Every structure is written in C-alpha cells, then in structure tokens.
C-alpha cells in the first residue's frame, strides 16, 4: 500500500476533476487525481474502431458554452463546424420522409402553429428560471409535481406537436421517458442552454466539434498534471473529519485536507464514507438517476447523402433513431453518420442480438437517407449503460418532485468534501461546459476555505 499526502485529493479524471486539479495546482496547492478507469476523460472518449476515429461520448461545442470555449483556447485546440449544407429530413406519423430547411419540421400548418405557441410560452417560463437555483422559483414545487408529458398534453391535444416538443428534453437530452421527469426538470434543461429555442435548434446546440476529438480537453489537462494523475484507482473509502480526510483505493492511501468528488452522484454509493453521509444526502441520491441512450456510429466510404443534397440532419419522434447527423471527421474523405436511440427504445433494442440490433438501427437510418445507409464500412454502438464507472447517459436527473425537494442540497456534501460534475451544473448542465464550470467552482471553494 502506497501512502501519499496532498492538499487536495480529487476523485475522477474527467473534465470537472482535471479542471479543479489544474486550478488548485496553479494556485500552489498539491493535488492528486484518482481515476477508476484506465484512461482519463470520463464521458469524453475518442477511440479508433476498425480504423475509424469515433467520438464515443460527448463531442459538440455550442456558442453559449463559454467555459469550454475558453478552455479550448487555453489548450490550443481548434474547432470546425458541423456539416449542415442542404436539406434536413423529417419522418412524420405516416412514415414518409420529407425534406425541409430551417428549424421547423414540415408538419401541418395547425401543428406548426401549436408548436410555435407553446415554444413561445416555454421560452417565457425558462426566462424566469435561474439555472443555478431552479428550485427557488415561486412555482418550483407546482412545476415539479407534473410530468413533462402531462404538462404538454394539458396544453394541446395535437399528438404530433406534443411528440416534437417533448423530444428536445426527453429523448434528445435527459434520455428518459417524458412521463418520468417533471416540467421543472425540463425547464432547467432548457435554462442551462439559455432558452428552450436554443435547445431545439440543432445548428446552435450542435454547432462545432474539436479537431481530433473532444477528449483532447481532459488529455491535455492531465498532461499538465503529470504524475499527479493515477489511473486504475477506484476509490473504495473516504474517512473524513474537520481536520481532513483519508482516501483509500486498493493500492493507494491519500491523506488530504480537502477532497473533490468529481464523479456522477450515482457513483457516490460505490464509496464507503466514515462517518456515513448525512441522512438527507442518502435520500437525495436515491432520487437521482442516469438516462440511457445508444449513440450509433456508421462510417461509409464517402458522405453519400451530400450527393443527394442532404445535410445529414434528420429527426423523427416516430423513428427508432429519433435523430441523426453528419458526423464526418475533419479532413476525412469518408462520411460518418451518428444516430441516437433513447430511453425505453434503447432498453428494447438491447433485448435483441447484436446482429438484429444493427439491422434494426440501420433500417431506421435508411428511412432518412435511403438504402445506402444500410451498408456502412464501420459500425459501432456506444453503450454507456454498460460502463461500470458511468452507468448511463448523458447525465443524471431527478425523478418527479426530486428537484424542488433536494436540489438546494445537491451542491453541498459535507466538509471537507466538495463536489464537481456536469450532472450538478446550472449553465452547461450535462455538458462538458458544465463540468468545467463545476471544476472551477470546486477549486474556488477550496481556496476560499483556505483563506478563511
């Protein structure tokens, strides 16, 4: 057993933990980062699959994500715009693929009017929400008692409008069935991006990618820390008191004045705390769970959809793959599509064999792009639900009533333990931007405590 002493022990080498570690080290404190995986990055992972570079986790950068944009500049990383020239495709309830341009799906005029009206109403509600304190809104408890699906269906009996409005925060972002989370949770998701309109605008929320992959952010942050990052070190126990903490892995014991838990809250129960965490924290974490999405990568010998005048952007609340995009890598002659299958649909797919699952998914993509979509040269499914140290995607969210009941407690654990994770962010919630913001926040809290 190796024993070391540091000012701060950080659990988790994702963007949040590595940001906090770099800030603290720059301020003159000694740090160590303990990572359970054999790599850094957490939910950021760029890998080569059958000769194709694929971003298996998070990958996009949007204009409002200033913390991430600043970090990319600091690390000297370049970005490029997602391909979006040409028509998008929408598949409606009749199964017919329709081409369109702009933000609005090609739906009936009366459905378009309903979508516009409710979107305007949602934007006004979101404008009242402080993403750092959504539970402080005067209607927080009321909005947290009704599901996202039930609220939408109370606004209109137009099922196609409801499905398209529900899509942005349901299948696309929180990746849970829309009856399982609240209106308030949905408003927080939108507020974290600036507005509901931002959230439904693919050209905004999925604006740019990083040349070489977004995992370069944690990789380069880790390089600055050198030997202070230890891999294959799942933390088993944390003993803490007012004087500091002892953090134990299977092979390393760290004595530190502060600890940063930079992992998803759903993983806190993998650690034995002594004394046990306060009762309210135990209750809170039982109402916080991950969503589930399959990220599908299909690589072709060329981006054939561009020859048809298609941008690669496709949507449908009726399709197995509810959304898909041109995900071709920078300066790559081959073409890549990325598609997404969420919540209960993803559950059902994993009850099938791998061959049947692939056939079903590629069939769905062909409904957008034609039969050539069924013949990729590389095919891969990112399954974060099977990752031991993630257990879902993209992030954790509260069940009905949980956000107003426990939200104010989630950012505070118990001294000297601090938290940092995209799941706990306001602006940038469940994005890398939020992870970086939370890493900065944890470092600031520790430095403030030391100055006190």
Automatic annotation (TrEMBL):
Q: Give residues annotated as binding FAD.
A: 35-36, 235
Cofactor(s) the record lists: FAD
Supply the Pfam families for this chain: Amino_oxidase (PF01593)
Query: Which keywords, in A-to-Z order, does the entry hold?
Result: Oxidoreductase
What is a GO molecular function of this protein?
A: oxidoreductase activity
Q: Which residues bind substrate?
A: 340
Domain Amine oxidase span(s) in chain numbering: 16-447
- InterPro entries under this entry? Amino_oxidase (IPR002937), FAD/NAD-bd_sf (IPR036188), Flavin_amine_oxidase (IPR001613), Flavin_MAO (IPR050703)
State the family named in the UniProt similarity comment for this chain.
Belongs to the flavin monoamine oxidase family.
- What is the protein's name according to its record? FAD-dependent oxidoreductase
* The organism of origin for this protein: Microbacterium radiodurans
